[in-house]
Every structure is written in C-alpha cells, then in structure tokens.
Amino acid sequence: MAVSSGQRSKVQLQLVRAFTDQPQGGNPAGVICFAQFPSPAQLQQLALQSAQPVTAMLAPADGGYQIRWFTPQQEINLCGHGTLAAAAVLFARFPEMSQVEFFSQHGDISVRKDAAGYSLCLPLFVLSAVVVDELPVAITQGQTVAAASGRDLILQLASKQQVFDYQPDFSAIRQLPWHALLVTAFDDTATNPCYVLRYFAPSIGIDEDPATGSAHCSLLPYWQAKYPKLPGQWQAQQCSAEGGEFKVRRMGDQLELTSQAVLVSATWLVAASLEIPRAC
Question: For the chain, which domains are there?
C-alpha cells in the first residue's frame, strides 16, 4: 500500500516472521505491495529503509502476483521465507483466498493455505558432487563427510552437534563462488526422517540466515539421494538462534514445503518522488 503526498510517498511495510508460529522466532521479512513496481533503484532504497534481512516486493499480475526479493544490499534470485511472508500478508488481507500464485524471473511459486499451515511449491535444484579435499580447510574445518554443489555449496557433517558447533569463517565464505554455504547433517535422533542445517550467505549481506526456505531446494534432493528407501515426507530443523521448523516432500520436479508465519506489525516508509496511485 502507498499514499502519495507531493513529491513524497508513504509506503506501508508489513513485518512478518516466517517459518515459525512465534512472533520472535523464525526469519523476519518485510512485505510491500504496489500497483506496479517502481524502478529497481527505488525498490532497493525501500529495502534498505526496511532494515529487514529480505523484503518481498509485490505487484498484481494476471492470475496472481509478481514478486521480487531484496536484501538491504541487493536483489536476490529466490527467497522462500520472503515468499511465505508475502503469502501470509495476502491471505490475511483476502480471507477468502486459499491459494496464491507468484511469478518471478527465477520461476513461479504457488502457496496454499490449509489447516496444516502454508505450503509452498519451489523448484528443486540440480546437484553435483564436490571433492571435499579441493575445498578450503577454512570451510571444511576437517569435519566434512561429503560435499555437493548447486546454487549453494552443501557440506555434510557427521552429526547434528557438529552442525550446531560449526564456526563459520565469513571471510572465507565470501570468497566462495556459490550463492551461500549450507552445513547439514542427518538427525538420527528424530522419529521421522529429518535433517538439520545452518545457512551462511555473507556475500549478499546475510551472515547467518535464521530460517531458509530455498535451502531445501538443495537439501531435500541431497538427503533423498542418500536415503532413497525412507518415506517421502521429511522434517528439517534449522539450528540458528531463532530456529526454523519445516516439513518437506518432493512433488514431481518441485519441492513442497509446509510451515507457519506470524504477522507482527505494520509501519510506514517515506520515499521521495515515488508516485504510486493505489495498493495491490
């Protein structure tokens, strides 16, 4: 929503916590709705003002909404928690809605609302094996069991505790050619098939992400290839300070991820020379 006054516009920012049912848990995101997108520079300005790890920008489109994701530093190519936050805002605004389609340059995303929570359908990433010994020791830290490459670099560690204890070298991670570093392990203490993870993306301004939906586009196919005889639905736990809980399963060539989101508050941002006649 935006309100114009002379050469300045007030833009409504909705604050959301994604991948949690607690207002202090999960991953924070901002959501801004437009009738049509302003310039990329103006979107980046608003993302910087929002001071959220990611701000999802929405504009109506035939059959759904265009979506773009911005950190305070730059536009990024896919953000699960930003998408879930955007869907939660729209479902609250339009209670009769039970499904919404988002369209982006990096693929289309469907989000469904039901009694179990919000379910996102995301693209699965293609992975290839990486030789652990060819990676910097500052990254593997002598604990890496296996590694794989997709959008992100995946390091498999031997235990859940090692994932908790992993000490990221952010300088070394910034030098990697991948979007982010994923550290993961199979959780053999869980009742159902489960893996744990942490997610580091300092090159896009996120040292450690609290709860990362797009990580499972890599991790679900990775762990299913390791344990092909286990049932199709998995659980995942993100071992950040805030934590994140996920249910994930493969649906053809897509990932279905189910979780929760909490609308926290709304505020207004002031942007100079941003003319937007109505909200989406």
Answer: 2-123+260-272 (3.10.310.10), 128-252 (3.10.310.10)
Q: Give which of 176, 144, 168, 167 is closest to 157, Cα–Cα.
A: 144
Phi-psi region of 133 (alpha: psi -120 to 50; beta: other; left: phi over 0): alpha
Confidence of residue 271 (pLDDT cuts 50, 70, 90): confident
Q: Are 129 and 148 in contact (CB under 8 A)?
A: yes
Tell me the whole-structure pTM to 2 decimals: 0.81
Other C-beta atoms lying within 10 Å of the C-beta of residue 22: 11
Judge contact between 68 and 61, C-beta under 8 A.
no
Residue 70 contacts residue 76 (beta carbons within 8 Å):
yes
In whole angstroms, give the CA distance from residue 40 to residue 46.
10
Residue 256, Cα to own-chain centre: how many angstroms? 13
